[in-house]
Amino acid sequence: MPRKERRNWLNFNNMSQTLNIQNLHASVDGNEILKGLTLEVPKGEVHAIMGPNGSGKSTLSKVLAGHEDYEVSEGLVTMDGVDLLELEIDERSRAGLFLAFQYPHEIPGVTNANFLRAALQARLPKGEEIDAVGFYKDMYAKMDSLNMDRKFTGRAVNDGFSGGEKKRNEILQMMMLDPNYAILDETDSGLDIDALKIVAEGVNRMRSPERGFLVITHYQRLLDYIVPDVVHVLFDGRIIKTGGKELALELEEKGYDWVTQELAPA
Amino acid sequence: MAQENLVSWFAAPPVLELGLELPDWYHQLQESSWQRFLTIPEPARTDENWRFADLKKVQFSELQAARPAQNIEVLIKRAMTERVNEFAAHFVFANNRLVYSEINGLPEGAVCLPINEALAEHGDLVREYFMQEKGSLGGDKFSALHAAATLSGLFIQFPKGTTCELPILTHHFASGDFNCVFPHTLVIAEDNAEVSVVDTFETANNDEQNIFFANVDLVATNGASLQYVALQDESDRGPKHVQINSSRVGRDAKITSAFVNLGAEWIRQESTARMMEQGSDCQIFSANLANGVQEYDQRTLQSHEAQHTTSDLLFKNALYDQSRTVFAGLIEVKPGSHHTDSYQTCRNLLGSNEAEANAMPGLEIDADQVKCSHGSTSGQISDEEIFYLQARGIDAEAARQMISLGFLNESISRLKGEAVQTYLFERFERKFRSLRDA
Asked: Which of A186, B241, B301, B324 supports an S-S bond with B212, CB 3.0-4.6 Å?
C-alpha cells in the first residue's frame, strides 16, 4: 500500500488505544507465512493466540518486533495510532512494545544489571542519567517477586542460564521496561510447572487497564494460569476462530483438527 | 645486510646514565647482553616464531635512548587521575626515569623499589631473579637489548606470607619521536605471599614514533599467588610495543596474568608460563581492541613441567577496519608431567571485512592422563544478538558496542579486584567511544 494512503488511514485512527493488526501479510525467504492476519488487542485485555506448529505464531511476534528477516508485503499495524511498521526495532520498544522471546539470546560479558540499565537509559532524554540507587532498589524488588537470586545481576545476560531462568529473566525485563503492549512468545515452552506458576504470577501482576497482552502459546496449560479475555486460533497465517477463554479448553480437548475441519468447504 | 640493519637500530648501547653505583655483575650483564643483541640475527620469516608476522614492522631505524621527557607535570597528573582507584603504591616513569611515587600502604617486609635503587640496595636478590628465563618465543634480540639497557621499572618482592589485596601500580610513559623506553617489571611472590601488580604503558603524545621494549618477570614460589595486569594504551598511531613476559610457578602456586592492548601501531607480546612443580597453576588472559591499521602479534607458551599442573589461556581480539592480529599458542606437556590440565582458547570478533585474525594453536603432549584442549574461533556479531538488544530499546550502534565490550570483558572479568576490572573496562569504553566519534 502506498505510504500516503497509510498515513491518511492513521490519522483516522489516531485516538485508538489498541494494538491493531490489519490484513498483515509477511514472508521470510520468499515464503509467505502470514496471509492476511487481522487482530486487535485493546489496552486492558489479555489475548491468547493458539495454533499448531507452523501456523505463523513466532513469525507474528518477530514481525511485530521488527525482525529484518521478515518482509511485510501488505497490511497495517498500529500501536495507539502509531504506525508500528514504520519504526525501527529499538524505536518500537521505546514506544512501548515488548517481546518476551521464545529463545532469549545469550550476551556473554554483559551483566544483567548493565543490560537493563542501558535499556532504561535509552528511554531517557539525552543528557539525563538514570538514578542508580532507585534502579537497583526497583530491580531487586522485582527480582524478589520472581524468586530470583540477587547474584543474578552480576551474571552475564542469559549466559549459562537454565531454560526457566531465561524465561524469568524475560519477565523481569518486561517488569522493568513497563511496556504498553507485551507479546509473550511461547513463554511456557521449556518450563516446569513451578517456574510456569512464577512466570504467570509475574504476568498477572502486570495486568492493568493500561496494558495489553498478546500471549502466544502452543499449549492450553499456560492459560490456566494466565486467564485470557479472548482466545484466537491461528492457522496457515490467518486467525480462523476467535472466542472466549473456553475456546482454549475446547481446543485442548478436541485438537486443532476440529477447527481446521470446520473451516474446510462442505 | 642484516648487520647493517643492526647498526642502524642503535649506534651504542642505549644505557641510561643515572650516576648510580651499580654492581659489577650488572655492568657485565649489560655488556654481554649488548654483545648478544649485536650477534642475534633479525627475525626472519623462515623462523616458525615469526610466521604471519609483518617483518617490515621490526625494521627499526633512528632509535635513540630517551632523553628526559617534557611536560612531566602533565604526565603525572594524567597518571594520577586515570589509575586504578584503590592501590597500595603508585610509581610513574617517564622516558625511563622515575618522576613520581606514592606509597599508600605496603605490607611490612615487602620490597617495592625502582630497579636501579633495588640494584644498589638489594643487589644479590635482584641478581638471583633478574632475567633468568632463557627460553624464547622469537624475541631473543629484544630481550638482549632490554637487558643491555633497562634501568626503569619496579622490583617487587613479597617475602613469605606477605599479602596485599590492593595492587601496586606503575605507569610507563614514552615521550618524543624515536625515543626508546625499557620498562622492566620483576615480581617475586615467595611462599604463600599474595601480590597484585598493574602496569600501564602510555605515550605522552600522538603520532610519535617511540618504542617500548618491555620485559616482565613473574615468580611465585610455594603456595604464592600473583596477579599481573599490563594495560597497553599508547597512541594508536606511531608507537611500537615489544613485551616479553615470563611466569615461573612453583608448588601449589598460582600466577594470573592479563594483557590488554588498545593502542600502539604494532605490538609483539611473548608470554611464557612455566608450571614447574606439582600444583602449579597459570591463568593467562588477553583482551585486545584493534582498529585502523593496528597489528597485534602475540605468542604464548604454556609449559607443563611437573605432575598435576594446570593452566588456562583465554585471548580475545575485537578487530575493526584493516587491523590485524596474530595469535600463536603452544601447550607443551613435558615428559612425565602426568595429570596435566591445560586449556587454550583464542576468540576473534571481526567488526570489518578487511580485518584479519590469524590463530595458530598448538599442542605437544609427552605424558599420560592429560586433559588438554585448544581452539580458536572467528566470527562476527550475530544479527540475532543485535535484534535481542534492539528489541529492548537499545539502538543498533549501541547494541554492537555493548556486545563487543561484553566480548572483551569476558576475559578480564576473571581477574581479581573490582577496581582493576573497572579500570580496564573504562579504557575499553573510552576506545569504543573514540571509534564511534571518529
From this structure: B241
- Spell out which residues of chain B touch residue A107, defining contact as CB-CB under 8 Å: 385, 388-389, 402-403, 406
Residue B438 lies in a domain: no
Rg (CA), chain A: 19
What's residue B379's pLDDT? 93
Q: Is the pLDDT of residue B4 over 60?
A: no
Mutate which: B347, B382, B390, B397, vs A, most A CBs within 10 A: B390
Neighbours of B364 (CB within 10 A): 12
Please write the tens of the pLDDT for every residue from A201-249: 999 999 999 999 999 998 888 999 999 999 999 999 999 999 999 999 8
Question: Would the CB atoms of A107 and B394 count as touching at under 8 Å?
Answer: no
Count of structural domains, chain B = 1
The secondary structure of B95-152 as a DSSP string is TTEEEEEEES-PPTT-EEEEHHHHHHHSHHHHHHHTT-----SS-HHHHHHHHHH--E
Q: What residues of A are in contact with residue B397 (Cβ under 8 Å)?
A: none
Cα B267 from Cα B298, distance rounded (Å): 8
Q: Does B421 reside within a domain? A: no
What single-letter amino acid sits at B216?
A: V
- Chain B residues with CB under 8 Å of A89 CB are 387, 390-391, 396
Q: How confident is the prediction for chain A on average, in pLDDT? A: 90
Report residue A158 as a C-alpha cell: 542469559
CA B269 to chain CA centroid, nearest Å: 6
Enclosing domain of residue B13: 2-381
Residue B286 Cα, gap to closest chain A Cα (Å): 14
- pLDDT at B403 exceeding the cut of 90: yes
Closest-CA residue of chain B to A65: B391
Asked if pLDDT for residue A1 goes beyond 60, the answer is no
Domain contains B258: yes
**Nearest CA to CA, how far is A241 from chain B (Å)?**
29
Q: Is the pLDDT of residue B174 over 90?
A: yes
For chain A, which domains are there?
3-106+180-263 (3.40.50.300)
Q: What is the pLDDT of residue A3?
A: 44
For testing contact with chain A, the best of B316, B387, B403 (most A CBs within 10 A)? B387
